[in-house]
Amino acid sequence: MTGFARRTFMQGTAAVGAATQLPWLLASQATAADGEDVPAARPAPIRWLESTPTENVGSTWGVSWPKGTLPADQSFSLRTAGGDRVPVQTWPIGYWPDGSLKWSACAIGAAAPAAEEYVLEPGAGLAPRTKVRVTERADHVMVDTGVLRCRINRSGTTLIASMSRGGREIARGGELVCQWQDGVEDSEDGSTRRARFVSHIDSVEVEQDGPIRAVVRITGTHRGQRGREWLPFTVRLYLYAGAEHVRMMHTFVFDSNGSSDFIRALGIRFRVVMRDQPHDRHVRLVGDGHGLLSEAVRGLTGLRRDPGQEVRDAQVAGRATPPVDTFPDNVRTRLHLIPTWGDFTLAQLTSEGFQIRKRTSPGHAWITVDSGHRAAGFGYVGGVSGGLGFGMRDFWQKCPTQLDVRGAAGDEAEVTVWLWSPDAPPMDVRFYHDGLGMDDYPEQREGLEITYEDYEPGFGTAEGIARTSELMFWALDATPEADRLVAMADTVRTPPQLVTTPEHHHRAGVFGDWAPVDRSTPERAEIEDRLDFLFEFHRDQVDQHHWYGFWDYGDVMHTYDGDRHTWRYDIGGYAWDNSELSPDLWLWYSYLRSGRADVFRMAEAMTRHTGETDVYHSGPYAGLGTRHNVQHWGCSAKQVRISTVAYRRFYYFLTADERVGDLMRELVDADRTFLTLDPIRKIREGEYAPDPNALAIGLGTDWGALSAAWLAEWERGGDDTYRDKLLTSMRTIGELSRGFFTDDVRYDMDTGAYSSDSDVARASHLSAVHGLTEICSELVRLVPEETGFAEAWLGYCRLYNASREEQEAELGRHLGNLNLRQAHCRLTAYAANRLGDEDLAQRAKEEFYRGEAGYPRDLTWERRRVEGPSALNPVDETDFVSTNASAQYGLAAIQTLALVPDRF
Fold it and tell me: Is 6-16+497-501+538-903 a domain of CATH 2.60.40?
């Protein structure tokens, strides 16, 4: 091979920072370069993601700011569009490299006016009249919202000791409950053992103490009667000024192999004080839409003897009935003969149906009340003197779920919100086949050839995966009217979320190469229509194919099976997508540029799923994610490209969500996993003896994931160790002879430095399609002094889709038949933008429209309906859609339009 000089490889890249100033180059720069005017921090328009809420429970959101415009400790003022000032609490959650403010988190309380629009701007904020007050004691934490007093224990089994208002205790004894089972009965004569576990607190930390928002973090495990600890949990409690509710984020880690430990049921339980007479006690359960079951513990309607219209109307409405001594004698003297219904159950065992039952007391038969489609996951038990509202978000989507009320006829009613219903079969996470004889690597490689499944014995374990659920609990001073109950149910279904506009985020220059939706030319309008088509098609597939369930909700399938008219749910690596080729990124960029609520909610659900269920949080694979498979944890390819923080940063900075912040911080040391797990073990010759100072951590999917975690930690003002590793890795990548094409690199885990003795250039089609493209674009702008890195990345972008002759001329060899050329057109567009190169800009356009390994322009962009008997349920199909191609088409379109807009 011919000799190679770095100067030759970088020819054409020296114009970085000195490109011809084409209009589209200037328009697409996300942040001001050195010497340019720094953009001013304009006021941020703030609006509700959906419509203005009727039940305001407070909201937290993130706002971005341009580099260099605001100090890190900037305070903010919030006002309605009409000019009325609104109390707001703000705090920094992200910084630019120069220390200026990049992201601020904001919160308003439950008493804030629910205006349609607000304006956030630098200035002194208005203090709330009613503040959240946090008092810490040795044995408990007391949080007072001004309406609700919540006592949180520091030890024991009870998390929330009491919830009270107006001096009256509403609920007490809030604890986590779990039912364990040692097996699954696969035959009629099977038998199993069961045990009860309850929460055991390890630590309590006040993460935020007001004045508008308080956050308390509780960690622990579930403990059995014999002392065994199982299922570590993290519970965060959120309380807002003026609120009468507690928002709970519940996370648990499945910390066993699943072969002999089965979750029979998992939930959160409270005891509710019942003060009123049985006929003034009420149970409310919200079903589909605004359907509402309104029951009394002792019913006074429909009796043979009529208590009177006033009595009946009051009971149905949830108001206090007239005094009993005013009842007709033929009712008053027989009240004790009317059954009291103390127990109620709403079980949503599938996404397509729920059933409500009730009984008088244990030991007696359950009576079916009614059934429905998709319950809201909200209920109330109490009376005219107060009670508890309780709800779980994504209730039917995360089936099997259940709401239980027990003992409502006694002094205390017991409420349990079941995340996994005890009426359902036990949770079964065992691997789905017996290995099919694939006991060695040659056989496993053969299996990959036929089902696309990368199988290996023992690797398909769920040990270490997690799930997070969101709940709300209201301490109410009386039974709410019907309209308010359904408004509360809507709040549980879709918590009110404040956001700013695409234009504001774009001006701030966050998240790299994108621009707001633009339909100003026929070509742009056509591409926007196709982007909408793809999103709406995949959104609708979720419901048409019922991609719901406790572990499944939030993910989508990988590839379609046109013969069976269903996605390949049962075929190896073609089933659950598990972030393959970055649908997460596609959805988040689609939201950023459109501001669409439905895109945000789908991206939110995916982030909750892929960050928890597709990633290991403990055990031997902690820090790694699992490649696509029939089960989310089934594939033996455990990789950082799936766990990458690149998919989480959006949600964290847009919402300030602490749990996603945890997930990002978990991954800052993910490079350590390469010491224990050989990612190329099935093709390696010889023994794997990893050297921590010379690890084979590649520059594509591996470094892309590590750099995203380090960048997020640096942005958040975390440990400088990770900033230094990021900068060192960038500098040394820039020093490699072949830049990002360098083969056989070695990584020093202590410093982040890369080195190589190789002079061979290679490329993988997967390197840049799991977040590397987006992260590198951001890093070049964030750290302009690393010119070697910028040149190396620019060289990769310019040459990946180049002709063989161009590749050979600069690299000494061509790169072979590279795949995903449409996906990589955005790299060509990046090079065109940075260099001001018209020919590259035109090449990027042609690569996009040609659609190699993607969607060519001349496809027929239509759906067709398939119904029975060809399909089980009516579904929409196309001739071309796959999730990989949709995600990469979406990213290619979004970024290419932003980088070379004048081509379209």
Answer: no
